[in-house]
Amino acid sequence: MAIVTAPTKACAVNPLKMSQPIGGAFAFMGLRGAMPLLHGSQGCTSFGLTLFVRHFKEAVPLQTTAMSEVATVLGGYENLELAILNIYNRTKPKIIGICSTGVTETNGDDVDAYLKLIRSSHPQLAKLPLVYVSTPDFKGAFQDGWERAVARIVEVLVEPNANGLRDPSKVNVLPGCHLTPGDLDELRVILDDFGLCPSFLPDLAGSLDGRIPDEFTPTTIGGIGVDEIASMGRAGWTIAIGAQMQRAAEVMQGKTGVPVRVFERLCGLCPNDEFMTFLSEISGRPIPLKYRRQRGQLADAMLDAHFHIGGRKVAIGAEPDLLFDLSGMLHDMGAQVTAAVTTTQSGVIERIKTKEVLIGDLEDLEWLAKTRHCDLLITHSHGRQAAARLKVPFYRTGFPMFDRLGAGHQLSVGYRGTRNLIFDIANLVIAHREENDQPTPDKWRTAAGLPPYSGYRSPIGADEGAIA
Amino acid sequence: MSSLAATLQNIFDEPGCAKNGSKSEAERKNGCTKQLQPGSAAGGCAFDGAKIALQPFTDVAHLVHGPIACEGNSWDNRGAASSGANLWRTAFTTDLSETDIVFGGEKRLCKAIKEIIEKCDPPAIFVYQTCIPAMIGDDINAVCKAASQRFAKPVIPINSPGFVGSKNLGNKLAGEALLEYVIGTQEPDYTTPYDINLIGEYNLSGELWQVKPLLDELGIRILSCISGDGKYREVASSHRARAAMLVCSKSMINVARKMEQRYRIPFFEGSFYGIQDSSESLRQLARLLVERGAPTDLLGRTEAVIAREEAWAWAAIEPYKSRFEGKKALLITGGVKSWSVVAALQEAGLELVGTSVKKSTRKDKERIKELMGQDAHMIEDMTPREMYKMLKDAKADIMLSGGKSQFVALKAVMPWLDINQERCHAYMGYVGMVKLVEEIDKSLSSPMWEQLRRPAPWEALAKAMKQMQSPISAIARNSTLAETERRATKICVCNTVDLGTIEDAIYAHGLKSVAAVREHTNAVGGCCQRHIEDILVSEPSALRQAAE
């Protein structure tokens, strides 16, 4: 449907994209007792760390092999060995997740071979899982790093189901990086209510949900344990959320034979109807009353909010899966996805309900929003400067969200999550209109010249009439 | 043009650096970058440092030549403020792809410079080198030189790839680039005898504007601030200043010293953090300007402003002194400003239980000793776990540090204030110090802490249940055990007097005060005074009843 265009300019301005290695490290942060390690110069880690800390307002474990210029020339074996030994001795991790960076990919470090050597010369590491994933900075984006890391974790840590016995109540959930810890908690409750017992891989809700642990822990404070990952082959089903998780789900299926169902979207009415029906089927239970009520509430929220969201010309900048999910929901509400910018190639972007998707940056998004007269901007916090210049309502979503609180608890999944999201966006539009766009005697002249959507933006009295 | 290696050697040999000065010849040869520990390193790289030092130049386009990580993961993350241009907050990067790495990134860099000039036409472009183009041999010096000529516009190479060292080294490399390509390339419209440079001041949260009105009042003109709220033209003509103040001595001492050498601009190291430090800095500025020929009445005018501001600030802080009595603060910062903040907090009546000196020079440490006494608890390098323990054990009531250790304090449910670059309040000057004290008070006196430290209802219940089954209640039911326990519990540690002796004395003689207990037993009643008071109140104790 949508035409995908690639950038032609030499200079990216105000990047939307973040790098693969920190996306990979992010996946390891959903594992219990984990220490993600970037094999590169210490700035690679420091920038990523700052970004995560500002987003979650939490202590975040992330280490570096601190490659110097000389080490880069000589090869990174010694730095990697030292880093692993230091982490092993100082923080006693349950797992170390290693991501390469541009530096170590350019000089061609063979990390898999290094790890073999390190294991053979340090027998104390025999039982410590070391998972390596190749994530060069100069390819792909944040989401790709996550995708590759999760696929790799499944490949290395999940054990084949030797006796073929399955527990139908056990369900594997492979969430994409666009889901927040809050989303995972919501999904956990839903699955529990169907009598299913979910294992989330990765489980950011266990590690970055923002709580006060009893003790200081230098590694992740929670998440899925290595043992639990190993036993995922005994589950009845694997549910992958977001097209990015297709690959990990396939690896899982290939290795263990657990059947897979991919849900590309979990935001909106229809996607959740599908999801509930599926859960009902695999659990053999009727959809609980609670969700029947929640569905009604979502339907009502859509009725109330369509006056404000319907007809809006939306400019969205987000990673492919988040873009697909959100733009789909907004389209279903009657909004027009007028400008869409994403970070990296993906199968879903050409199915986005818009004319054109650009793989570009926030400068492109700002320009498109301006020339196409968009009146709602949705992207991560870096869009704040563009929003201020465009003078349009700005909804922050995705990663990073460093200038507002509660990033980890923003919801988009389930009937209830969609309902909240719709309210948030509609309220933003209402507040923006109240502050900037009150009707005046002169306004009708200009308003008449506006495109048809102005009909939706009727004065408040009319809205109240509609509700009554 | 010197190579990067030569520049590095030159920086390591900085005679103005106190740390360097205190080293032996052999140590000096090794350079000053501490070997980074793989697996336990924190902090930014040299590129990070260079960018931080120069990015506050507000009208310059900052172009990062590297893969997406270097700029994409880091842009718009500093709280420097601008009074005019906003170009510095726009991120430009060549976002190198795999193809560029195979075929070289110079062409893309050239095109990127052209695009920026067409779109924004900034007064200058700073091009930052990063690790990967350095590895594949992109010669940014040559590209910048060619671009400067072709577009008749300064295009400045900042040669500071991340892997050459730490953030601090990057600050200095940025300074070297300014010295080599920028400073002295333009002339100011006019000069006055009151022109100064501020070096190593970044106008975080706009805090420079808390001091600037005082300078304006005195007629002192900031010819150039390197680099907070700075403009390219200002720094390019900064060589005409009469005096300079080095604000962050760690980041740009090379700039201050070389400008003194080349352009005879005398400088001093000062700080606007803390009341006395602010006054001292104003005095020094006036003195240097007068020495360079400014009219001598400046000295008197400066003293008058200082007297007025100090009186105001002291009066504003006074009400807090009683509120801060007995409160202890732990200070973990980059270290440069340790001593100046130490002085400021003591002014407000806070007791400091420790301060980090990781980046402080020997001179800094001496000043801290002067301020905090010989037994000052100076922390060279504290692990997060140690900080957490210190706070959890309530050895400090509040921690002041940079954002990175924030959660160590907050997760120990202890008040914490950000005093590093990401903070949102400006603490500079007299106004700033009063603000800092206000913020500390707000944090310390919040009713929230009390609620958060309270255990959850189920935890309280579980604790009560445990106590019922605990050894103490078992002891209470067994007289011999209770007696042994009573004899084993030391109350006066100084003279080793146990609980049993004290309790028996109180019972036998009907004692009512600590002084009386002191008379009848060996107890000193000094450090154990509080304990004895407790025993007096709770007599007869459950243990003694059980023992009988």
TrEMBL record, chain A:
InterPro entries with a match to the protein in the record: ChlB/BchB/BchZ, Nase/OxRdtase_comp1, Nase_comp1_CS, Nase_Mo-Fe_CF
Keywords linked to the UniProt accession: Nitrogen fixation
Pathway: Cofactor biosynthesis; Fe-Mo cofactor biosynthesis
Pfam families in alphabetical order: Oxidored_nitro
Domain Nitrogenase/oxidoreductase component: 19-429
Function: This protein may play a role in the biosynthesis of the prosthetic group of nitrogenase (FeMo cofactor).
Family to which this protein belongs: Belongs to the NifD/NifK/NifE/NifN family.
Protein name: Nitrogenase iron-molybdenum cofactor biosynthesis protein NifN
Gene that encodes the chain: nifN
Automatic annotation (TrEMBL), chain B:
Transmembrane segments: none
Domain of life: Bacteria
Entry annotated with the keyword Amino-acid biosynthesis: no
BFD-like [2Fe-2S]-binding domain mapped to chain residues: 491-536
Domain Nitrogenase/oxidoreductase component span(s) in chain numbering: 45-444
Pathways involved: Cofactor biosynthesis; Fe-Mo cofactor biosynthesis
CDD domains the UniProt entry points to: Nitrogenase_NifE_I
Keywords, sorted A to Z: Nitrogen fixation
Protein family per UniProt: Belongs to the NifD/NifK/NifE/NifN family.
NCBIfam families linked to this entry: nifE
Protein name: Nitrogenase iron-molybdenum cofactor biosynthesis protein NifE
Organism: Bradyrhizobium agreste
Lineage: Bacteria, Pseudomonadati, Pseudomonadota, Alphaproteobacteria, Hyphomicrobiales
Gene name linked to the record: nifE
